[in-house]
Amino acid sequence: MFRAVSLAAFLFATWLLLSGYFTGLLITLGVLSCVGVVLIAARMDVIDHEGHPIHIGWRSASYLPWLVWQIVLSNIDVARRILAPSLPIDPTVKQIPCTQRSDLGRVIYANSITLTPGTVSLRVLDDEILVHALTGGGIADLEEGSMDRKVTAIEGHADD
Amino acid sequence: METVLDIFSWIAIVGGGLFAMIGGLGVLRLPDLFSRMHGAGITDTLGAGLIILGLALQSGFTLITVKLILILVFLFVTSPTSSYALANAALSAGLRPLTAKKEDMSS
User: Fold this and answer.
1) Is the domain of A81 the same as that of A151?
2) Is A85 on the interface with B (CB under 8 A)?
3) Please, are residues A133 and A114 in contact by the beta-carbon 8 Å criterion?
4) What residues make up the domain containing A72?
5) pLDDT tens digit at each of 160 positions of chain A
6) Which residue of B has its CA nearest to A77?
7) Which residues contact A136 (CB under 8 A, 6 or more apart)?
């Protein structure tokens, strides 16, 4: 029930921000469509920890700035390699262990790996992710495991 | 103040355009599909991110900025997901990455 109310609040906030009209008619229409969407989502049984993962909300607040910084750093590294005339790359494929317990956590980890240029997740398995990296260094950074630990920390308990 | 904002916004937009171009160059220069995805990743992340940052600086504290940030949020969720689908499909179709040394492939 809490998740349904929260989903409705998120939907309505999005409606307000995207429309920018604060007249009675449009707000009424917004409320009606948000309630409709929540009812359909409830009937489809998708308002759960995957469909509306609010439990990772406040914990991901410290992860996102770190991830953005990693993205900037690796962007500059990959850009330098692309611009270098000798194209200094050393493509490597390796399985990286992942310690997340839920599918949601693994998806966050795999997407974080892909978002960071220089590493792309190829296949997510139960407790490891097959990663393609432009350089051996990218694999070494992942094997060091700080991204894995941070994602596991924001994931919290899978049964939240 | 206006001028300072304009300067920062232009630096961000030009920088974003530059990174988008480098990403395109990477797609051309890198040897196979899997390594080319890294080049495309530059355009998706820092290229798009800097351009949207520059545009947000131009529009200030308005609903337009909120929409620009929403574009970035959706881009950061959808682009790695579609990259994963592409890489996974290529792997399932039997395409093998070019690597210097052979690693085991469990698939």
Assistant:
1) yes
2) no
3) no
4) 56-155
5) 788 999 999 999 999 988 888 899 999 999 999 999 999 999 998 888 888 888 777 788 889 899 999 999 999 999 999 999 998 988 999 999 999 888 888 999 999 999 998 899 999 988 899 999 998 888 998 999 899 999 988 887 644 4
6) B42
7) A90, A92
